[in-house]
Structures are given as C-alpha cells and as structure tokens.
Amino acid sequence: MNDMNPVQNPATETPSTEAMAAPSHTPAPIAAVPPKPVDDNPIVFYCKDCGEIVDVRRVGGKYVYTCKKCGTKNVAFGTKKSIYGFFKLEDKEKAKLREAKREEKRRLQMGDKSIKPRAS
Questions:
Q1: What is the pLDDT of residues 53-99, one digit of tens each?
Q2: Which residues on adjacent β-strands are paired with residue 79?
Q3: Which of 3, 37, 82, 117 is most buried by a 10 A CB count?
C-alpha cells in the first residue's frame, strides 16, 4: 500500500464539502437579456361621449379620468389594440372615409360650384 493514497472504505466515507458544493458540470452561460422593444401598443384613453381617443385629466388617486374635450368622466382606457378592438374604431374610421369619398363623388356628379375646376 502506498502511504500517499490510502485505501478507504467507500461505505464509511462521508462525502467532502467540496464534492457536494461543486457541480459535476459547468452550467451554460446566461445569455444577455435582449433590449425591450419599442412600445407599439401604448395606453390610450377613449371618451365614450365624444367617440374618439382623447387627452384626459386624472381625478383623485383612483383610476378615474375626465375628458379634456367634453369634461365627462365617461372615459375608458387600455392598450391601443384593446380599445380599437373593443370599440371597433378601425371600422368606424373606414366607414367615415367611405362616406367622405361618396360625398365627394356625389358633389362631382351634381356639378357642385364649390369645387373649382383646374385652369389649364
């Protein structure tokens, strides 16, 4: 037997603290956290009386807001996507554009005098 490396009985041997603390493999390095994307969906305020996105004033410490345009407290808030989806604002905007095009077409057909023809 070698005095430098004595044979020990593994059943009676207690594991060393070094063996318990050190893992058998090295963990993978933690990847850097990617930067936060630009806020594409900000919080907006929708006045139910005015029927449009508005600026608001906060009332008290709670989630109560008044519309700067009409002064009522009938204001909903949420992300742009949720407000536009819930109140169907995109559909309303498209309907307004269609109506404006129809009105312009009707004026041109009727010969409205308010539209001046181009001089060549």
A1: 999 999 988 899 999 999 999 999 999 999 999 999 888 888 989 99
A2: 43
A3: 82
Burial annotation 47-77 (CB, 10 A radius, 16+ → b, else e): beeeeeebebeeeeeeeebbbeeeeeeebee
* Rounded-to-integer distance, Cα 58 and Cα 31, Å: 41
pTM (predicted TM-score): 0.52
Question: Which residue in the block uniquely carries the two structure tokens 């009938």?
Answer: 74
For the chain, the farthest-separated pair of C-alpha atoms sits apart, in whole angstroms, at 118
* Separation CA 31–CA 4 (nearest Å): 44
Rounded alpha-carbon distances, angstroms, from residue 2 to 7, 10, 15, 57, 92:
9, 18, 22, 86, 91
